[in-house]
Amino acid sequence: xxxxxxxxxxxxxxxxxxPLAPLVWFKSGGPAEWLFExxxxxxxxxxxxxxxADITVWPLGLGSNLIIRDGGKRGVTVRLGKxxxxxxLHNDDSEVIVCGAGAPGISAASFARDNxxxxxxxxxxxxxxxxxxxxxxxxxxxxEMCDILVSADVVLRDGSLETFSLDDMDYSYRxxxxxxxxxxxxxxxxxxxxxxxxxxTEMKRIADEREASQPLRTKTGGSTFxxxxxxxxxxxxxxxxxxxxxxGQAQVSEKHCNFLLNLGGATSADIEALGNEVxxxxxxxxxxxxxxxxxxxxxxx
Length: 301
Fold this sequence. Notes:
By secondary structure, the protein is α+β, with helices and mostly antiparallel strands. It is built from six helices and 19 strands. A five-stranded antiparallel beta sheet has the order 6-7-13-11-12. The protein has a four-stranded mixed beta sheet with strand order 1-2-5-3, with no helix packed on it. Strand 6 and strand 7 form a beta hairpin. It is globular. About 45% of the residues are buried.
């Protein structure tokens, strides 16, 4: 473990050997070597400027769509708290909202609705932060971040603050071109004027559909595999006979085959091994190679 003397001073909270399992949806995985919760953007910038270049930096959002391996995460894990969760209308354009990267997607969708802006309703169906959604071009219900993003403010590994336009993001399906160690700190999103009642109805439809089709009240990571071209991942998993498949305390959801579950005592290794077994069976059955959508980080034990 790196000595605290090698780390810069900070106004935020810096914790050594910090448990991460409580912070992720699967409730599994090892600790962070260091967990940094900056007080504001300048605190984050100053910390990264002073941090030795060989120390890795990785941002953690709400912990959905994530497996942290059982050996934990080396380097510094950065978690953006309430100081990064504000949402406001743009000063010069009432059709644009500015969201802190730590704000949950549902909060952004609700703020847009309250201000009569349509187009962001799909964020109601994304269980992470705005920052995480920006980084991975998250999407649901026919829309994705590239449809609404104007720009994102990003702190790079060297501590510099840059604004990335939509074109700069180099978006593709569930992917952006943001460099390693870059941390999204805010996002500017464009809506279109709409009827509040219609927006509310659409958000309720999305919420009800998620509740009916996904195992939301379980220890899960969200959607596990990307949809391959011309296919639905859940259907390929189902057709390969993997619905309900179990390894240790990890299980493929019977309610939605593209979700993995921690039934209680699963390790991250159990969950990842189950995912890889599903991939193997799908490849054998259909010839399609499923790609992970869930991010897997950290050290194996």
